[in-house]
Amino acid sequence: MIIVLKSDATAEQIEHIEKNIREWGLRPHVSKGAERSVIGVIGEESLLANKPFDLFPGVESVMRIQKPYKLVSREFQSKPTKIKIPWGKPGVDPVEIGGKRVVVVAGPCSVEKPEIMLETARYVVAAGGRMIRAGAFKPRTSPYAFQGLGVEGLKILAQVREETGIPFITEVMDTRDVEMVAEVTDVLQIGARNMQNYSLLKAVGRTKTPVLLKRGIAGTIEELLMSAEYIMSQGNEKVILCERGIRTYERATRNTLDLNAVPVLHKLTHLPIAVDPSHGTGAADLVLPMALAGIACGGDMLLVETHPTPQKAVSDGAQTIDEAQFKAMMEGVRGIAAVLGRAV
Amino acid sequence: MIIVLKSDATAEQIEHIEKNIREWGLRPHVSKGAERSVIGVIGEESLLANKPFDLFPGVESVMRIQKPYKLVSREFQSKPTKIKIPWGKPGVDPVEIGGKRVVVVAGPCSVEKPEIMLETARYVVAAGGRMIRAGAFKPRTSPYAFQGLGVEGLKILAQVREETGIPFITEVMDTRDVEMVAEVTDVLQIGARNMQNYSLLKAVGRTKTPVLLKRGIAGTIEELLMSAEYIMSQGNEKVILCERGIRTYERATRNTLDLNAVPVLHKLTHLPIAVDPSHGTGAADLVLPMALAGIACGGDMLLVETHPTPQKAVSDGAQTIDEAQFKAMMEGVRGIAAVLGRAV
Amino acid sequence: MIIVLKSDATAEQIEHIEKNIREWGLRPHVSKGAERSVIGVIGEESLLANKPFDLFPGVESVMRIQKPYKLVSREFQSKPTKIKIPWGKPGVDPVEIGGKRVVVVAGPCSVEKPEIMLETARYVVAAGGRMIRAGAFKPRTSPYAFQGLGVEGLKILAQVREETGIPFITEVMDTRDVEMVAEVTDVLQIGARNMQNYSLLKAVGRTKTPVLLKRGIAGTIEELLMSAEYIMSQGNEKVILCERGIRTYERATRNTLDLNAVPVLHKLTHLPIAVDPSHGTGAADLVLPMALAGIACGGDMLLVETHPTPQKAVSDGAQTIDEAQFKAMMEGVRGIAAVLGRAV
Amino acid sequence: MIIVLKSDATAEQIEHIEKNIREWGLRPHVSKGAERSVIGVIGEESLLANKPFDLFPGVESVMRIQKPYKLVSREFQSKPTKIKIPWGKPGVDPVEIGGKRVVVVAGPCSVEKPEIMLETARYVVAAGGRMIRAGAFKPRTSPYAFQGLGVEGLKILAQVREETGIPFITEVMDTRDVEMVAEVTDVLQIGARNMQNYSLLKAVGRTKTPVLLKRGIAGTIEELLMSAEYIMSQGNEKVILCERGIRTYERATRNTLDLNAVPVLHKLTHLPIAVDPSHGTGAADLVLPMALAGIACGGDMLLVETHPTPQKAVSDGAQTIDEAQFKAMMEGVRGIAAVLGRAV
After folding, report:
1. How much is the pTM?
2. Contact call for B248 and C257, based on CB within 8 A
3. CATH superfamily placement of domain A83-339
4. ipTM, 2 decimals?
5. Alpha helices in D59-150 (DSSP H)
6. What is the pLDDT of residues B246-270, one digit of tens each?
7. Contact present, C221 and B256 (Cβ < 8 Å)
8. CATH number 3.30.70.1140 given to C2-63
């Protein structure tokens, strides 16, 4: 930590700060500059996280120099984390997230009737997709909107996996449901609105099920990593981070897909990175170009909303692509992946 | 709902859309313009909330004209909601939020030791404050930071109320804790990070305890109202909305206190409006001017962090004011309230 | 400047950086920490502004500790700057901006016909306003929208001043017009869109006319100060800074009035601070509460759009208040100013 | 335009609005809904752009349905605009922007010494780049920072073109310089800070030189199009739009590159779209992945900062790539372009 002093800080003020630093078991180190001095604090920075040095007389500002996260960092683990999800039927390789192959996960926004889920799962697999996604518990802005099929939805997803073998991702929203959902799903999703629901993060961190953690609409990259740290600090090391669009002043799209986050995250963390161009744009005709861009900049996984007839989807139809669009997207993804030395 | 058609929409496309609208039990109403036509949809707009008209051939965009919330709206109830909180000892008037008097709520960020809590409560009351605030369960960005005293903290708050009579506000973060916290606290706080934790909103909506709902750092005014609607839709009508700063590109302050929201909310809703200049600025020396501004633009309540010695507060010290600063603030608040025909 | 090194920076890398720092005439100062080391750079930080230390092997990040501005800073001049504008007729005290009295400036968005300008000027003065504002050159988003009366508008403003004595503020948008506009106006306005039009800033900096510098819709407080520094660096010390709303994700209001900026700026600079609640909200019925808030948090000046019949204003009618609303606002402003020991 | 009425709007209020609409030469069209009524206004919407219907009694809100731009729109011209820039020496095909080939433009932030410019131009051309970029007039946040070589810089650029044939792009910042710069450069750049400097837009619109218009850091896609409309409305149809990162709350990168804007702009306009991953990220090691993503989502052109030794660049070194990085980027760009059926 660096404490920047005011240009008119007195010797007494500086001594007072030094004394306090020592009381907290750390070592101060004053550097006198031409215009102002600074105090470097040597030792475990986290000890100071709650100390309000800003309030001390003579202090102008305080700068943190250590990263606040550990387990998620590249410095802690340089090798990329690979997460294996077993296929639901014998004879098929497990899905590996964070490896050489780009993993495409697709499905309707909400769990639909079994026939529709099955139809979707079949064309997703046929085109090269390796997991299905659909919400059984739905976080909806309005209390009057459809809130998902709940437990019934989980059963449909499990049934589709039994018939086709395809594993699935589904969201959990309530600490009281975590155990139950974790037992049936292959990957637990923490939605954007719950990125800083710390009770929920701790709860999923205590399971052994892989977690897809979506970035909040106003979540910084550092906060996303801190939320992953919450999960890992409880013992669950299988975390996938997902960029799904942030909220900015621009309204031509539902969200602003922040693809910069993909290479930035790859520098900072060993965890695999997913991109969701459906929520990241909010418009079906933008999904294909942004899916390609998401892979081109290094995404390990795509999360896409698809439905046999998007006009009849029970939610989020406007950003849902149909089978033909999904196939076209997969063809492009395959091409881009090859340019980067990867595969689908 | 208004469906704006593309300038080259064909008669067939228009008929197809009209047919669909009728199938959903509503009436379409086409207006042909010079450059493009629009279809007005007459009937209960909420029926269409999930219908992806954007996807229909010939459609350029869709505009909603009805507000998505009801119970919270001025149209539903024109008279301001007043929420009464009984004083914890006999002989003192209840606190009324949303009435003529501006209510000032103050206290440390986290619950501290009983002596400190008592000392704080006493100077808060002496200066004209009418409730105390402090977190027993703390949402912290880092899993390694102090997470609050938990149940022990609730006991301290109850003890302070017993001794001084002052009622309190404290946060609840987990659906599993709602019942327990609601039993002891006077007002349940939903923190900014949980503004769209719908499971939690529903859970507090099923209690009879008043709820202070803080605006999320990227929450729009409409979303804040929708979250209040969640609570009210479960039967709990005692909701206070709190502006506490939003996240913008500006970093000179921790957050950007959006005081525009105060008069805007007063137009849209009958619920009382609180302002939190401590989180809204993140700096102790900005609390006084912004508290005054918060009352000047119509705030009904202030939420302020104070501590006998902010440098020793266990959390958020940098934005915490001491007793002298609190007194000075109260003097200003009293003056401003009088200009507006209110009192403290 | 503090150069934070990577945890695995080698001795060679550190020496290489130290060598470069010395070559630029500065002194490096290495502090070895538990987890990572930092290099403090002692000497004139501005010498390093363009040096890409981020690119050197072993460097993790670079932190600036000196402020990039000088002339505008409180450290350079602790006493508040007061700017005097002479009244246009003998016998009336000059307007003083930044002094004890709060200065209210009002008028229509665009210069209107002489009769309307006169009528406005008269009711503004009668209610306690001390300057008039109106645009002769208008920055409009659309090339097809009314672009202002131009030179004709300036003449009308000068004529109103001649008849009533009231001085005025008007915008200049083009370096080619600066000299001409500066000759006639009392205060030159640099609009939000031109906050970083450095050619224009330099040009107005070379005049002796006071300048009202509006914050850009995405301008940080530091950038606003740097733009003022541009003007002052050319010799013109009469600069007024104006908060007029920033662009955020919120759309319930046209802009988000960032009142936090008022006390923050008072800490950082000696220049007077104005608040524009008309552009800051975009809605006539929000002007009064936000004008009061703008004064309550320490604004020295208000900039308000008013028109005898806003429904007929040639531009910005929706955010323009009429005479009755202006009077009501002035009454509130007078009350708030008194609470703060100021006057109107 | 759709005027949404309050639920309690009276018949008199509605008549009053209808009367006013007719007075402005347009036709009102009232639709009575279950909950509230709306008035559609038929006729040239731009006539109403300045009419403050929001202020009329009984009105709740006003919605615009026509796009405010014309010349730039796909509806005005469906065929993509292709802009040809002649090569500076005989025997080489002109550069075509907006055609089948992706055009890569590269060079240092500021114009450097002739030797460095020549060296850069040579490796840019060798790797497949087709234009050079460098600033002679530099918009710098600080008045004390290097402001560019000015006219001398233009001469160096012209000299490099003479020797190598490579055409160039350079920025113009002042209306007084437009004619002079337009005479020598191949493409005039309008920088992000000047996106809404309407005097400058009009001035470049009156030249015949192609214009690269950069999106402002808080510019919406619609405002970017309106600024291009300014240029086109003056007669200059050769406009290239450039996404270069917007300002958001995220600080892990200098800006947030909004690649969503690329496919959105392709839908709305016939003009070619460029992407600038150097300013869009602010970090050299993010340029390659984001350049690939920029092409993958449909960019027609890349604008990249490169320098033989970025550590010695006079400005923006931290985001500048060297020759080896540039070559690697070009290889990736070539691969991605091929996947999309394009070439470099």
Report:
1. 0.95
2. no
3. Aldolase class I (3.20.20.70)
4. 0.94
5. 114-127
6. 999 999 999 999 999 999 999 999 9
7. no
8. yes
